[in-house]
Amino acid sequence: MGGLLAVAGLGGCKKPYRVGEHVWVEHDAGVYPAFVRELRGGTRLLVHYQGCDETWIREVTLDRVKGRVDSDTAALPQKSACTQGNKGRGEKAIAPNTPFNKGDKVRVRWRESVYSAVVVKVEARDRFRVHYDGYESAWDETVPMNRIVGRR
Predict the structure, then answer these.
(1) CATH number (domain holding residue 117)
(2) What is the C-alpha separation between 117 and 48, in angstroms, rounded?
(3) What burial class does residue 25 get, using C-beta atoms within 10 Å of its C-beta: 0-12 exposed, 13-18 middle, 19+ buried?
(4) Are 110 and 40 part of one and the same domain?
(5) Residues spanned by the domain of 26
(6) Pair (67, 137) in one structural domain
(7) Residue 9: CB partners within 8 Å, gap ≥ 6?
(8) E strands in 12-112
(9) Cα–Cα nearest to 38, from 19, 51, 11, 54
(10) pTM of the predicted model, to two decimals?
(11) What is the per-residue pLDDT across 4-50, written as a single tens digit (0 to 9) for each?
(12) Could you report how far apart the first and last alpha carbons of the chain are, in Å?
């Protein structure tokens, strides 16, 4: 019984990653900051490396995710995956990086329902101006990350 408790304790305390979280991801010979864009089953994430353009969206396995940026791993160096040893390959760095960009089609929670919307403006890293599909622009609003359910 004690062995079963010890095994259950391993990894059981770790909170699952969520869309929009800022995480450290192992890539080539380094560890780089990225945003979680999608959850793909229980073993993979779609991430967008911070400071990199849309060509730097990658599907990664959970073993390559080394922790959350705002956690105890914050002492890791701040660098971009697309600028480390990849100069001259056509990748363009952009800043600041956000988990959603203008034009992204998303699902947004409003009260007890979820509505289809489009991001019309990035207000901040975790705040987005959205336009609800089928509604007039009077219903557009700026929403925090926790109201965006995911992509559609």
Answers:
(1) 2.30.30
(2) 21
(3) buried
(4) no
(5) 16-99
(6) no
(7) none
(8) 22-27, 30-40, 44-49, 57-61, 65-68, 105-110
(9) 19
(10) 0.47
(11) 333 333 444 567 888 888 888 888 778 888 888 888 888 888 888 88
(12) 44
